[in-house]
Amino acid sequence: MEAERRSKLYFGGSSGVDTFKPDNVSDTWLVKFMHALARGIPKENAREVFDKVAFIIFNYDRCVEHFLLHSLQKLYGISEQEASDILSDLRVIHPYGIIGDLDTMTSPGGVPFGGGDRVSANYIDLSNRIKTYTEQLGAGELLTKLEDEMRRAECLIFLGFAYHSQNMRLLRPAKAMPHKLVFGTAYKMSDSDRDVVSHQISEFFTPNMTTKMRLDIIRLENKLTSADLFDNYAKSLTGGD
């Protein structure tokens, strides 16, 4: 909660910012992603905005959900209730849990982003909702959900992901998948380490890839930030739109 409170997305209370200001994060991937996602979708079809996307978020924070909730209101000029209803359709998996759902119009009683005005909180209660890798490795239902989303996706995008071995093991399907495009950041990673990760990702798929196929299908960029990735692959990520 303290990390959420320190983020550029936090507003209200003693932050000095009264309302959500997308300009505060205009240099991040979040704004670029939202524009790409909503391109061509008018206000009357806003409910469809999350139809073609799902998130697997390894962090404990709710920054993505918080941003999307408020950016929907700004982008379409809709109420918090309407934005909250749309957000409820978004498929989000936090493999290691979160401290609680956001306190929204469709989820009253959740945990406000950054703790809201609640200076004191029962951290012991909130921490019980956080899971460890060992706990999750044996969680069959979670692993099934992860694999289902990986298989459903037309392409996979890794953003700000460190490719830790334990997280890669959680993502690796029990049964290899057909080939699909993969885009990802590996910012400031050496070329050698990037190739190691590329090989690890290639093992998610069948049949085995030749070197040329791997380089064509798996695009890991070690000189691009997450925001740069959306600029560099704007058409690839939106199907040419």
Could you explain how this protein is built, in words?
The model has no long low-confidence stretch (mean pLDDT 91). The chain has 2 domains: 1-131, no CATH class; 141-241, no CATH class. The strands form 2 sheets. It has a 3-stranded parallel beta sheet. The protein has 241 residues and is mainly alpha-helical. It has helices at 2-6, 29-38, 63-76, 80-87, 123-127, 133-137, 140-152, 165-171, 191-202, 211-217, 226-232, 234-237, and strands spanning 54-56, 91-93, 155-158, 181-185, 218-221. The radius of gyration is 19 Å and the shape is globular. Helix 2 runs parallel beside helix 11 (226-232) and helix 3 (63-76) packs across helix 4 (80-87).
What key attributes describe this structure?
single chain, mainly alpha, 2 domains, 12 helices, globular
E-strand count: 5
Question: What Rg, in angstroms, do the CA atoms define?
Answer: 19 Å
Question: How widely separated are the two ends?
Answer: 37 Å
How would you spell out the order of helices and strands?
A: HHEHHEHHHEHEHHEHH
What share of residues are in beta strands?
5-15%
Query: What overall geometry do the principal axes of the alpha carbons give?
Result: globular
**Contiguous runs where pLDDT drops below 50 for at least 5 residues:** none
Strand line-up of the largest beta sheet? 3-4-5
Mean pLDDT across the residues is 91
Percent of residues in helices comes to: 40-55%
Q: Helix/strand-derived class?
A: mainly alpha
Number of helices: 12
| Sheet with most strands | 3 strands, parallel
List the domain count as a whole number. 2
